[in-house]
Amino acid sequence: IQAAWMNRDLSSLTPLLSDEMNITFQADIDAHKREKKINRIENIAVRTVEITEAWQESGQDFITARFYANLLDYTVDDSTGEVITGSKTEPVKFEEYWTFTRPVGNSPWKLSAITQG
Q1: Residue-range definition of the domain harbouring residue 6
Q2: CATH code assigned at 11
Q3: Structure pTM?
Q4: Which of 5, 45, 75, 114 is most solvent-facing, going by the fewest CB within 10 Å?
């Protein structure tokens, strides 16, 4: 997912994302393109992953996982490569909750939401 985000091309992710997440990601990527920015995410070090919730609702399975990780997260100017925000050398810690969904049964899971911790 992170590689597709940095390459600003979601085509490989279509089977992995809910329609809503695909629309959200594409809108963010389109905004970066208009602003001539590229968000870089590098040196991802996932520290822990925990399942925090699992439930069924309206014929859908849901599961939420909490990720604790460190990474380099910075944005560069598309034409100059100059860092606009973030740092190429100072990692940041983050906590995110990723929710996946699928129809009840054995269908593949799709990412349906990301929430900051």
Answers
A1: 2-116
A2: 3.10.450.240
A3: 0.89
A4: 45
